[in-house]
What does this fold into?
Amino acid sequence: MRIGEALRLEWTDIDFETNTITLNNPEKNGLCRKSKISSKLTAMLNALPKIHKRVFGSAKVSSVAQNFCLQRKKAAAKLQNPRLQRIRFHTLRHWKATMEYHKTKDILHVMKLLGHRRIENTLIYTQLVEFETDDYHSATAETIEEAKKLVETGFEYVCTHERYMLFKKRK
It folds into this structure.
């Protein structure tokens, strides 16, 4: 979601039972949408103080953007990577759209995810990058519990060989 949309989230927009956020107040004439979130993010949000109607209180876009720039500058200096200075908050939205398209090859799914009304807007976000390598991390599991943990951390089931289940995840 956009930064302004996130700042307008209300506690009633979060369903802690189903790990979903409903965006009822989109920007730029976008569509309302519901997004699945991780249980880790749900727990982090649930730990925030609930003293305001809005999740992030009365925070303003300008102050959040200022803090983002400060944290980005610190990270760039610490990691000695000046390219981090080029990342904007909105860059993360482009990255998510690009990765989701690469994963699903479904532009309509990405359009719905971003809340766009027109496919042309989604095409701007979805950088149709040629990924040069198909490098993967691989893992094996012998039990259902091990397999479940791998799936929960983003691994994808490939096949079973003898008593081992094989999984992969893009690097």
Residues 89-132 form one domain. The chain has seven helices and six strands. Helices lie at 3-7, 39-46, 61-79, 89-104, 107-114, 119-125, 144-152.
